[in-house]
Amino acid sequence: MTKTYQLFIGGQWVDSVTGKTFETRNPATGELNGIVAEAQQEDVDLAVKAARRAFESGPWAEMAPSDRGRLLHRAAQKLWENVDLLAELETKDNGQPINESKYIAIPAMIDVLEFYAGLANKVQGETLSSPGNRFNYTLREPLGVIGAIVPWNFPLMLAMWKLAPALAAGNTIVIKPAEDTPISTLELAKLFQEVGIPDGVINVIPGRGDIAGEGLASHPDVDKIAFTGSTGVGRLVMQAASRHIKPVSLELGGKSPNIVFDDASIDDAVNGSMFGIYFNQGQVCAAGSRLFVQEGIYDRFMDSFIRKVEGIRIGNPLEATTQMGPQVSEKQLNTIERYVQSGLEEGARLVTGGKRFAGTENGYYYTPTIFENVSNSMSIAREEIFGPVISVIRFKDEEDVLKKANDTLYGLASGLWTNDLKLAHRMAKGLKAGTVYINTFSMLDSAAPFGGTKQSGFGRELGIQAMDMYTHTKSVWVDLNKEGLNWYQL
Ligand code: NAD
């Protein structure tokens, strides 16, 4: 029987006021995962109202920070008990291999919740050395209602990057998951409800980006928008938020360079570069999609890289042996095909892959693809493909590669492989990106801030820094003069 899912607003499971619904399908099989209520502007209004009510009064507004932290820890415990369920939902929604969702994405997501649960009672203001008989202190306060707009590549993890710091700081939240992956976030809300999160603190409104997403970004009563998604949509979100001078944080796309120097340990560089691009079928914002390889190591590196890439096991993502599942949708598959075609037309050499994977019937599978002889000006080297396609560029020396690596509109992540300590740190300084990986790629930790520069966005998620994005500083002045201060007699 087909499962149906409702919106989660004010602690209630409700249909959209218009009764509209949409289908969500398993990208590996085309099977229907469920029919989901589709939020319209009226539903956005109701969700924001519920979040506002929960923020202004009632148990959440009155809860001591330590109790808030304890409640978030209880939720984390509940999530640990449901790792299998969440991993399976995530994999059925977006096609991520079950080993990646179960052992990487879901545990990392719960770790984020625990990290911020621990910070709930550590939000602090300051006392300042004030002049004369005056005294000033600052309060660090929650912003209010947070609107979170999330993409489909890591639905739960990217929702949690917003939800956990927002709630730890005392805000309430309305989350708009991506059209392709709404189910796991609804399940997440259910688990939070079961541990007693007060009504209205978390609201989930699946729906279309240009309706529910736009409605949230431009809503007059939302205090901040936290967005993860493409650079193009990020621009629209920023415009919509500007209507009410709403702060935004934007985690956007990337075209991250991954640089292998002559003296690198080949096996490490090969394995890390593979993970850097093919993890989650290449649908990773920080993916090392431009692979720069130095002349002296080029042939040896490429021999090993190609051999290993051709051995990647593609298949049903629910099977534990699968290393690469399907792309999330037909739309993504078509985009990848368009880019592969443009790579061929612009003169790059297709080394392996470059076609749909034929071993399965209905899924959106694509083969891991390598292009050589790529120049930095080709569209496969400039634009984010968001699929399992890597563009390999040969380089001469440090100056040459630094210039090329930074010659991009994006600045999310970057990586390099070398055993030369000085070179590694010179590169770390020179690369224009929010993250630099040295002899590793795509590492994440709840305590390590993550975010972009240039058109990869601004703001830092994760780490203690993220709490700043969900609080504001209030400056409080007190006059200590016995007689009071009469400005007109000065
Ligand atoms: P997308 O930009 O198409 O959609 C992201 C979200 O925005 C979805 O929920 C969508 O419904 C919503 N949306 C669409 N139009 C909207 C509008 N007009 N107003 C408000 N919301 C709207 O991105 P996607 O295809 O879901 O995800 C892939 C993109 O996300 C890639 O570019 C990737 O690099 C980026 N990404 C970035 C990070 C990061 O941390 N920097 C992480 C993951 C993904």
Explain what this protein looks like in three dimensions:
The structure is a single chain. The chain is of the alpha/beta class and 490 residues long. It has 2 domains: 4-252 and 456-475, Aldehyde Dehydrogenase, Chain A, domain 1 (3-Layer(aba) Sandwich), CATH 3.40.605.10; 257-438, 3-Layer(aba) Sandwich (Aldehyde Dehydrogenase, Chain A, domain 2). The chain is built from 16 helices and 23 strands. The protein has helices spanning 41-56, 59-62, 65-81, 83-94, 98-117, 155-168, 183-194, 209-217, 231-242, 266-278, 298-310, 330-345, 379-382, 398-406, 421-430, 466-469; strands spanning 4-5, 7-9, 12-14, 21-25, 32-37, 127-128, 134-142, 145-149, 172-176, 202-204, 224-228, 248-251, 257-260, 290-294, 349-352, 369-372, 389-395, 410-411, 413-417, 435-438, 453-454, 457-458, 471-479. The strands form 6 sheets. The protein has a 7-stranded mixed β-sheet, with helices on both faces. The protein has a 6-stranded mixed β-sheet with strand order 10-9-8-11-12-22, sandwiched between helices. The chain has a 3-stranded mixed β-sheet with strand order 1-5-4, with no helix packed on it. Strand 2 (7-9) and strand 3 form a beta hairpin. Helix 3 runs antiparallel to helix 5 (98-117), helix 3 crosses helix 7 (183-194) and helix 4 (83-94) packs across helix 5. Bound molecules: nicotinamide-adenine-dinucleotide. Nicotinamide-adenine-dinucleotide binds at residues 149-153, 158, 176, 178-179, 209-210, 213-214, 217, 228-230, 233, 236-237, 251-254, 285, 384, 386, 412, 452, 456-457.
